[in-house]
């Protein structure tokens, strides 16, 4: 009976301990805040940066609003314009009763007057247009001696009205005149100037700048004249080489063609002589040289007397051919005759004869084989 009692006590102690630990953990969870409640290190730094920027912007706005002052009048004494009661009037601006008005060609940007972009672009294009016109005219003078060198200021001023970009300026006459004045100021910086009667100015394109406006033909002519001492000898040398090469090539062609014609002349003379001396032959053993020339030469080759002259030289050096004058049809002609007695046939004719013999032998062999075949079939 005494054993169950301590067991129950132990259970009570265990249950009381567990209940106390659970209550402690719940209490600590209530007291300790969650980890997501506090920002991380990186988020904390970004938060500080945002706060700093916002503070700077707020301070700056407060400063400008608190320190904004009216502008000092333009006609005010310069010593008074530096007072603390007003802001000095900026350059390119006119101030009256504390208000700022920028002059033509400038626009307000904060407390300053800056140049108008549209007017600047138009004035720049005007100056480039005038520069191109004057430099092209001066380039014509340098190249061909005709054109205009110096142009009066009044002519340029009136010519600006014709430029197509002036329509972008608008209908305001003051702005229109200001744009032209700005263009003239730029032109005066780019071009050469001189003063003539009544203090008016004239403008001229600089020589260095006019070089870029010269036509291509003019530049080429100037380069040729500048380097003539070098180009002339080189050109003469090239032409001489070309002529020499053509002459050598023409000489080789004439020699090769003359030898070809010479061989044809020998073959024709030899055949004509053999035919005239044969039993059933007829005709003369000689041939008129001019007839051979007209027969062998092409029409375009007859215009070159050097070709047939070389053939005649080759024939003259050949001892197998006799050359003598003969009266033919009442006219004296030079005839050529092949010497049959005691002469050697030309290599071309010997080759031709060998080819004919081989051809005849081949024909006879074929006929014999055909005859033998027919005999075998009969038996």
From TrEMBL:
It holds the Pfam family MSC. Gene3D superfamilies: MAN1, winged-helix domain. The chain crosses the membrane at residues 44-65, 227-248. One of its GO terms (molecular function) is chromatin binding. InterPro entries: Heh2/Src1 (IPR044780), Man1/Src1-like_C (IPR018996), MAN1_winged_helix_dom (IPR041885). The keyword Phosphoprotein applies. Residues 15-29 have a biased composition (Low complexity). One of its GO terms (biological process) is nuclear membrane organization. Keywords: Membrane, Nucleus, Phosphoprotein, Transmembrane, Transmembrane helix. This is Man1/Src1-like C-terminal domain-containing protein. It comes from Hibiscus trionum.
